[in-house]
Specification:
By secondary structure, the chain is an alpha/beta fold. The chain has eleven helices and twelve strands. It has three domains: about 110 residues, 4-hydroxy-3-methylbut-2-enyl diphosphate reductase, catalytic domain (Cobalt-precorrin-4 Transmethylase, domain 1), CATH 3.40.1010; about 80 residues, 3-Layer(aba) Sandwich (Rossmann fold), CATH 3.40.50.11270; about 90 residues, Cobalt-precorrin-4 Transmethylase, domain 1. The strands form three sheets. It has a five-stranded parallel sheet with strand order 10-9-11-1-12, sandwiched between helices. It has a four-stranded parallel sheet with strand order 3-2-4-5, with helices on both faces. A three-stranded parallel sheet has the order 7-6-8, sandwiched between helices. Keywords: 4Fe-4S, Iron, Iron-sulfur, Isoprene biosynthesis, Metal-binding, Oxidoreductase. Its EC number is 1.17.7.4.
Length: about 325
């Protein structure tokens, strides 16, 4: 029986960013250097496949530092941690490695600089997301106010409307962030922004690729985890850009084939914490059911690489 034809438009760039790649390498190098087990506070990146793969190599994932023994190394996730976490690790004389993405660390430094200049900070981010928790935890309580929507801006109670700065979570929707920034500037004309956009290059590039692909396909699949902010934003961007069916899937097993029975074109991308092997798995699942033609749609080239911390490059 002849398989129905299907065109897959494959986004490029997609998948792992430099910060995620660095964080995974940090865990692998720590296991090589100190042996198993190595503890990791929070999921190193938001992807179950990655976490399970590292667990099989000897990583133990915990939510809080008090779940870690004093005599084993601990790694802080790519999302960043509040200052109290490394301070507590030092108090306990623990070996720790900070895998915070350098672009998240840049936001931490910005917040501290603004605070040192006497400004109160407004953080644009998602309540409870580990990156937001980590950034807000760089400063004393009350010094960082969180907003998630333009409506939140109208409810802000600030110390001095003329002494404010804003920072953003690095994985937000570019459009959503722009709307909130516009609301902040309308209410607080003197508010100070970052020297360079906080939303990271990988988030921006992946969203732009989806904007290009989404209006040209019958369906869009984003390979990523439900707790991955940047992956969920890709689904939202695809829907806004005109794709009638935009869905998040962790693995090929989650694809709703009944919903895709009549499609003739599908866009595929992956969040910044999703490995390429999962993208290939999804494409193979389509090949089993359709006569597939793959077109790569490249909207940007990425060649960013971040070094791992010096402690991992020194002899044991």
């Amino acid at each position: 029986m002849t398989k129905p034809p299907l065109t897959i438009r494959l986004a490029a760039p997609r998948g792992f960013c430099a910060g995620v790649d660095r964080a995974i390498r940090i865990v692998e190098m720590a296991i090589e250097k100190w042996g198993a087990p190595v503890y990791v506070r929070h999921e190193i990146v938001h992807n179950r496949f990655v976490v399970d793969s590292l667990r099989a190599k000897g990583a133990v994932f915990v939510e809080e530092l008090d779940e870690c023994p004093d005599d084993r190394p601990v790694i802080f996730s790519a999302h960043g941690v509040p200052k109290v976490v490394p301070a507590e690790a030092e108090r306990r004389n623990m070996i720790y490695v900070d895998a915070t993405c350098p672009l998240v660390s840049k936001v931490h430094i910005e917040a501290e600089r603004h605070h040192a200049n006497g400004l109160q900070i407004v953080m644009i981010g998602h309540d409870g997301h580990p990156e937001t928790v980590g950034t807000m935890g760089q400063l004393p309580p009350g010094e960082v106010l969180l907003v998630e929507t333009p409506r939140d801006v109208g409810r802000l109670q600030v110390r001095d409307p003329h002494r404010l700065a804003y920072v953003t979570q690095t994985t937000l929707s570019v459009d959503d962030a722009a709307d909130i920034i516009a609301a902040l500037k309308a209410r607080f004309p003197d508010i100070v922004g970052p020297h360079k956009e906080d939303i990271c290059y990988a988030t921006t590039n992946r969203q732009e690729a989806v904007r290009v692909i989404a209006p040209t396909v019958d369906a869009l699949l984003v390979v990523g985890a439900p707790n991955s902010s940047n992956s969920r934003r890709l689904v939202e961007v695809g829907a806004r850009a005109g794709c009638a069916y935009a869905q998040l899937v962790q693995r090929a097993a989650e694809i709703d084939w009944a919903a895709l029975a009549d499609v003739r074109s599908v866009g595929i991308t992956a969040g910044a914490s999703a490995p390429e092997v999962l993208v290939e798995e999804v494409i193979d699942a389509f090949r089993a059911r359709f006569g597939v033609t793959v077109e790569t749609v490249e909207t940007a080239a990425e060649n960013v690489e971040f070094k791992v911390p010096r402690i991992l490059r020194e002899p044991a």
